[in-house]
Protein 1
Amino acid sequence: MVTVINSDYCKGCNLCVVTCPVKVYKEGDKPSSRGYFVPKIVNVEKCMDYKRKKGEKKKCELCVLVCPDQAISWSNE
Amino acid sequence: MKFFDLYRKDRWPHMFCPGCGIGTAMNCFFRAFAESRLNQDKTVFVSGIGCSGRIPSYILADSLHTTHGRPIAFAGGIKLANPELKVVVFTGDGDLGAIGGNHFINGCRRNIDLTVICINNYIYGMTGGQVSTTTPFGYYTSTTPYGNKEYPFDLSEVAVAAGANYVTRWTTYHVKSLTKSIKKALVKDGFSFVEIVSQCPTQFGRRNDMISARQVFEWLKKNSVLHKKAHTLVEDHLDLNLMGKITVGEFVERNREAYTKVIGVRK
Ligand SMILES: Cc1ncc(C[n+]2csc(CCOP(=O)(O)OP(=O)(O)O)c2C)c(N)n1
Ligand code: SF4
Ligand code: SF4
Ligand code: SF4
């Protein structure tokens, strides 16, 4: 299970970049169609919830709770 | 219920500025609400005026957007008219600590059964960044161009002194502790007060040398001191708060009888 960013919601505040303890996010360098710099997801395999199975308890999830624009969610959940 | 089920997706993306802490506060609240298994059809969300007052308009439930400073008065009315309902108030530091100050202390004093969530961003966000009753000493706002010369209120300590049953304060950085505390506040009988110190990059940050949301967020993290620790320091913890430090934690947990029970409208 990995996190994904919805670029229609993201406003490029980079709070996810500051929050993630293992640096899964990196500041974006290209503006989205709405003009915001959406962060990039790098080294996703370091995420504490990587490979978590469906229904399993989440270990970290800090980025999902912090993102002020509800842009981060789990893929295939 | 999953935590995204409470959002009114038809109104997304919301109106808050990039990086505004109100979005984070909403996440923590919705998570706590979903995990407490409360019924959204038996809950009313009440708010005053300000950016923080916009929160209920993004929740899929009944809500009341009242006049500036008066959400606690309206919410108390709802609770007395129909004590079966859960009533949650969203308010800002200006709404609660300035124009609504009297409703706040008297709501705590009566111990009326409400869950009051205050987004304290140290400033009047919506109206152009005027000084608030919680702006730390020396900080800049649009109406204090030479720095704030007034000492701020400590909203949580006021609630403790006025008699609330449960009082807690966290910042938008402490998402996990905040979620846990909101869960407690939601099930607590009587007046429960949750203060969330939050970043307003647009009005507060940029006037105080923090141009990005990220900088204000890191400032909140750096300046937070655990309430328990602060009490053993040499400095008075109120003095710490005056200078822009933030003591966080749970301030009080009491079991005084709730107002609706005292007057007999609820068993
Ligand atoms: C009776 C009345 N006085 C003044 C106003 C103008 N006003 C609207 S919002 C606001 C301040 C809100 O500040 P705060 O409660 O801190 O909320 P924030 O926008 O920071 O979340 C003021 C003074 C009003 N709407 N009604
Ligand atoms: S925290 Fe959310 S809105 Fe901010 S940059 Fe990250 S994904 Fe975008
Ligand atoms: S869940 Fe935790 S470790 Fe994984 S990306 Fe989010 S903040 Fe980073
Ligand atoms: S003005 Fe401040 S409080 Fe209001 S939405 Fe913008 S950042 Fe948030």
Protein 2
Amino acid sequence: MQRQVALIKQSLFDQGYLDEQFVELEELQDDANPNFVEEVATLYFKDSARLISNIEQALERGSFDFNRLDNYMHQFKGSSTSIGASKVKTECTMFREYCRVGNAEGCLRTFKQLKKEHATLRKKLEQYFQLARQAGPKETARRPK
Amino acid sequence: MLNPGVVGGSSNSDPFPAGLRVLVVDDDPTCLMILERMLRTCLYRVTKCNRAEIALTLLRKNKNGFDIVISDVHMPDMNGFKLLEHVGLEMDLPVIMMSADDSKSVVLKGVTHGAVDYLIKPVRIEALKNIWQHVVRKKRNVSEHSGSVEETGGDRQQQQRDDGDDGGGDNNSSSGNNEGNLRRRKEEEQGDDKEDTSSLKKPRVVWSVELHQQFVAAVNHLGVDKAVPKKILEMMNVQGLTRENVASHLQKYRIYLKRLGGVSQHQGSMNHSFMTGQDPSYGPLNGFDLQSLAAAGQLPAQSLAQLQAAGLGWSSSSLIKPGTTSVDQRSIFTFQSSKFGDGHGQMMMNGGSGNKQMSLLHGVPTGHMRLQQQQMAGMRVADPSMLQQQSMLSRRSLLDDAVVVRNSSRVLPGATHSVFNNSFPLASAPGMSVTDTKGGSSSATAAFCNPSYDILNSFPQQQHHNNNRVNEWDPPNMGMVFNSHQDNTASAAFSTSEAYSSSSTHKREREAELVAEHGQNQQQPQSRSVNPMNQVYMNGGGSVRVKTETVTCPPQATTMFHEQYSNQEDLLSALLKQEGFPLLDSEFDFEGYSFDNIPV
């Protein structure tokens, strides 16, 4: 079970879903805060869902206020970076770049991709945390190679 | 697990930087949570905040409550750089900026605005481990005596650490200690530092409450029109202070006075917000008459706290005294009466002194209102001699629970302002109810909107009635307070009032309480709550909530707060316009002053 957990985690890193920052978070976890990473992730997904919906609304309006979109995305990028959501972060950067040049089509496309990555990560992490909890606390703190 | 109050091995070795009191501001909850965790791991005492305004309120209320501030650059309510400016000006604390944005221009902006450091997100714990260096460095720079800096700085840290070791339980003593420490240090530094001053890279002079009081007394004595820096300097007789320091300070002071609407120098003597330095228990009120306002304004504690912070930039710890239901009995005006040569028309708010100001109160709900009304009534009374005496007496007695109302001759008849003697108007008149928070924060909150209206409306009349010439101070502040909500004027307002930084003493605890009052669950622990590590000030919708481990903010309260603000802002603007007071934004020349002094 524990090995399974470790494998899942390793794959997340290998596939680029997570990066070093996630490891940092794990190191903050200890006996007194055994579920810290999960708590942060939960908070992140909750907050980012809100951001996503804001962006969605802004895009649907069709007016393409790039400044505002960029602002939203900046926030999104910030939190994604903080938890180490690597692929999501990449999409954010691309989105902002499209905003910068005023490419609406690019924004829409990237946003779609971003949502996809976000959803994928969420699923994978949920899976991971669930397993980790079952496996026991020790495993979650281990650094991936 | 980490016990913030206990530092490993502190008994024999120097636990510093453990216990460093950090205020972290970021609108991103994920980042905030992560940072908090990291900082706690570094054994720092962390307070989180997701809104800049709240952060400022906190800082103002607890002048001595934090050692360092870490703030995000991009925040919805206020630009991080603006916050940085305010903090630098008003509190002179080191501020670290952070952002996911690592572009050179932004980093440069951080530098020019005076940030002591700039961290790129994602922030790693290693970067946070060393932030204490900025605290030490700043202390060294502030102190004018290079030689004694290490010792005093060390002492101070020691002091803080000790306080921290107490588990943050006894904020009063700690802040008092710090205050005393700081004051002592300042004095001794100023005392033996004449030669060094010139040879050292000139550190920024921190205009502490006492210093400012001395200044104001000197100015009053000479007469505002005739006060020249040289003479003021001589009268003040403070070692290490140069004519230039006095000159620039005087300039700011003059502008402030002018802004008050041509208040005569007499009023000037009222010495804004300088809390009576002499009464350590009161701590520097920094002219927060907000408390009195609060009492008068029956504003919910939180709003008061916030307003105060916003408007004045002087967070007087004294302002918020929890459990001030007894306020009416003990409203105390803190004055620097001893310092002021002139009789200030200090208004005493005695709980019972009469309800002349009833009109002001009618928006106010419940018990708070009652108290406040009484206080207000009391405030109106302008009996300088009596006031002074009373204030003196009350000052002493009230320390612990009454709202300290800074009454200066400038008392504003307006419900909110009346209390404050500070030269800097307490913007948050409505916020004054802070003191009452303990008892009925929720109700107070509810009342927030209403009372403010009443108060504001009654302002004009009161101003006319006010013999104490206080009013001028207040309106601008009021505007400030409310505007702060919008984040523009607030900064301006703050800078003016905050130009005079003061080491807050006692007030800190009290103010802290004020701020935190929002959540009902907060009531008890509040007394010294500002510093506890577990406090989180989150602004769900504009209200400050103090929570001990979880953020629980009654949703309605939050909303209410928001609304109140906007209402008040409108009111204030209207009021101010009516009164012919210029809106704050342009008013604050102090900003210029402060900027010059911002160490980059």
